[in-house]
Design a protein that fits this description.
Strand order of the largest sheet: 4-8-9-13-10
Number of domains: 4
Distance between the termini: 94 Å
Mean pLDDT: 84
Shape: elongated
Number of strands: 29
Bound molecules: adenosine-5'-diphosphate, magnesium ion
CATH superfamily of the largest domain: P-loop containing nucleotide triphosphate hydrolases
Low-confidence stretches: none
CATH architecture of the largest domain: 3-Layer(aba) Sandwich
Number of helices: 22
Largest sheet: 5 strands, mixed, barrel
Strand content: 15-25%
Radius of gyration: 33 Å
């Protein structure tokens, strides 16, 4: 161990002599840069220090409270030799910040053995507080008006033992204006979701950040952080009340990791395996059946999950418009059809994924929240922000909190979450694909009612944000039941999959992260297929009165789906086959949910909240109105129309509603004579 007195000297020598490969001095260069950019933080790469003297480097890690101040003195001296004026100006705020300590300690393993030592951890920022001024030096005046400065390092405010001039203990008063402050912020970091052992509470630490690195990280950011672990008492007016302390990290340096999700490690051998799978003729079937291999059947759902995991790349147009690349999928289904199981699998196999329940377990829920803790305002990230650039599997989607409903509209289309509350206004990135599941309100899905009647607790505009919606019905069918029963029994008997998946779990994870790097482009054949289908769908879904046709959103969804399939097969080009697969999935959705329960025609109004048979009701009502008008087109009294409607088995409520719909859809209008209605005829 090095003697403290020698430390400053050694650090100064290190700063002055360290040179890069070409021989130019690294830290002298950085210090000149600091001076010209008016910076206050000298960032030192730990590797350079190790190279210079590993004893010195280790002293820094083991005794940071002695070594860091020496390092600061050394930095100050070195700076003074460059520019004494500037050095004196920033002396108080000059910081040495250490980055690149090898052996990052997982948050879970940070324990008391690290107390008061310097270490590097990785984690995710889950909350950040507002900035508060923290006093570093307090100025005290004695009754005779003399100023005495007292440096502060602990939480309780320290008074000087005696006045500098009177040389005796006096009754001091704080002079706030002469005191010195520094920016202060609290972060909370938590284990990365994908590193969290299942069923465990995520480990987290509150981190104190000071100086020019405040606001360097936002909630949802993945960071590498250098800091010193502390045990802090809970103060009650300067007195320590219990022997139970809190742990906390004093942050020395925080680096936000690259914006790209760190990819799962894919070795050369893995790459060969991955390419081998993609080259096999039944590659796609293999991939689909490797999703949730413990679950029998549900192939379309598994295919949808696979494509959601792959996603497509988001496109930014020259004018800055962003086209979303994520695919959002919703499963509505009877209880016990393995929805939750499939969601859990998806969250685990995704290179970055979180499984959550719509009820949410934290204040931040699915979006973000502003909370006040010990009188400090904090912005806390919720599930979709934490899963930025990954997937969020949200079970019991219909049970989500009202705040989340509004936030998700924005999240699912704009890929951001905005929060404006308690004086905090912030926009956080949430480029997250949503895989959601919910149960029908009455327990079971009623096929004679439309989607929104079945899940009426779900906010309707949200439904339009889903690229694919599937209904999973649990219908007893002797042959299928037998298969499922034997499947489940054999899984339990063997304590393993009934049949091993074609691609095992960890390879599939690597496969997905490998595939996500590809950005395929549409081939002319794929374009033709998608266009034909869309135009046909548009034709089939229009023509009837009140029927709402497919919108360009549908076309965009299909492009995303086809592109994701090409990605999964490691192709640079979206082929006709990809387009056909997208058509098939879209068709399944049209049949499952977008077909009017009464007319049996595709109606995209259903996704926008049109209840069962409204189309039919509107059509019937219009016929009644026309009949009443007769060929001379006499205005019809509203009351007469209503009576007729009631005769045709409309309820009072329904009749009122259908008349309103007529006006809204521009099929009828109130004639100049009050209380009379006329149809609009072309
Ligand atoms: P849900 O969320 O749809 O209500 P769960 O995911 O909780 O249903 O599934 C209930 C149980 O039934 C799980 O243990 C699941 O493994 C089993 N199960 C249901 N359907 C299947 C299936 N097709 N194959 C294998 N297991 C199934
Ligand atoms: Mg469930």
């Amino acid at each position: 161990m090095l003697a403290s007195s020698k430390l400053s000297e050694l650090f100064e020598d290190f700063l002055k002599t360290s040179a890069d490969r070409s021989g130019s001095p690294i830290y002298r260069g950085r210090i000149s840069q600091l001076i010209s950019s008016e910076g206050k933080s000298l960032v030192v790469d730990f590797g350079d220090l190790l190279k210079y003297d590993d004893d010195l480097a280790n002293t820094l890690l083991l005794r940071p409270d002695t070594a860091l101040p020496s390092f600061r003195t050394a930095a100050f001296e070195t700076m003074r030799s460059e520019n004494a004026l500037y050095a004196d100006r920033v002396k108080r705020d000059l910081m040495v910040r250490i980055r690149g300590i090898p052996d990052q300690v997982p948050l879970r393993r940070v324990d008391t053995s690290y107390l008061d030592k310097m270490l590097s951890v990785t984690g995710m920022v889950v909350r950040t507080s507002e900035l508060r001024p923290l006093m570093t030096t307090a100025a005290w005046t004695c009754p005779s008006g003399h100023l005495t400065y007292q440096d502060q390092d602990d939480l309780p405010l320290k008074r000087p033992p005696k006045c500098d001039l009177c040389d005796e203990a006096r009754n001091f008063e704080l002079d706030r204006k002469q005191s010195k402050f520094i920016d202060f912020q609290i972060l909370r970091i938590q284990e990365l979701p994908e590193e969290l052992p299942p069923g465990q509470l995520p480990q987290f630490f509150d981190v104190n950040v000071e100086g020019d690195i405040v606001n360097a990280a936002r909630p949802g950011d993945r960071v590498v952080l250098t800091g010193i672990v502390r045990a802090v008492p809970d103060y009650t007016v300067g007195q320590i009340k219990t022997r139970l302390f809190r742990s906390q990290i004093d942050c020395n340096q925080v680096d936000v990791k690259g914006k790209e999700p760190e990819q799962v490690q894919v070795t050369k051998e893995d790459e060969t395996l991955i390419k081998g799978i993609a080259a096999s003729p039944d590659a796609y079937e293999k991939l689909v059946s490797s999703i949730a291999p413990a679950i029998l059947g549900h192939l379309s759902e598994k295919e949808a999950i696979l494509l959601l995991l792959a996603g497509s790349s988001s496109t930014v147009l020259p004018d800055g418009t962003k086209l979303r690349g994520d695919i959002n999928v919703l499963f509505v289904g009877d209880p016990g059809v393995a929805k939750s199981e499939m969601l859990k699998f998806a969250a685990q196999v995704a290179p970055r994924g979180i499984f959550a329940s719509g009820r949410g377990s934290t204040a931040a829920g699915l979006s973000a929240a502003v909370i006040r803790e010990k009188n400090v305002l904090m912005l806390e990230a919720g599930v979709t922000v934490l899963a930025d650039q990954g997937i969020a599997a949200i079970d019991e989607f219909d049970k989500m909190k009202p705040e989340d409903r509004t936030a998700l509209h924005e999240q699912m289309e704009q890929n951001t979450v905005t929060i404006a509350k308690g004086g905090i206004y912030a926009t956080l990135n949430a480029r997250t694909a949503i895989l959601a599941a919910c149960n029908p309100i009455l327990g079971r899905y009623n096929p004679y009612q439309n989607l929104t009647d079945n899940i009426s607790t779900l906010p309707i505009p949200l439904l339009t944000r889903f690229d694919l919606i599937f209904v999973i019905k649990d219908q007893p069918q002797p042959s299928e039941d037998e298969k499922l029963a034997s499947h489940i029994l054999s899984v339990h008997a063997r304590k393993s999959y009934a049949a091993p998946p074609p691609i095992e779990f960890s390879l599939l994870k690597k496969y997905i992260s490998y595939a996500k790097k590809i950005s395929p482009t549409l081939s002319p054949e794929a374009v033709a297929r998608l266009k034909d289908y869309y135009l046909d769908l548009r034709k089939r879904s229009s023509g009837e009165e009140g029927q709402i046709p497919a919108t360009p959103r549908t076309l965009e969804s299909m492009i995303r789906i086809a592109t994701a399939r090409a990605r999964m097969l490691l192709r640079e080009e979206v082929t006709e086959d990809d387009a056909l697969a997208a058509v098939a999935l879209m068709n399944r959705m049209v049949e499952d949910v977008l077909t009017d329960a009464t007319t049996k025609k595709p109606d995209f109004g259903i996704q926008m909240g049109k209840p069962a048979g409204e189309t039919t009701k509107l059509k019937a009502a219009m016929e009644i109105l026309r009949a009443l008008e007769g060929s001379e087109r006499k205005p019809v009294e509203r009351k007469t129309l209503k009576d007729e409607l009631m005769k045709a088995k409309f309820t009072d409520e329904d009749a009122e509603k259908v008349i309103r719909t007529m006006f809204r859809e521009g099929l009828a209008y109130e004639s100049p004579k009050p209380g009379f209605i006329r149809t609009v005829r072309s």
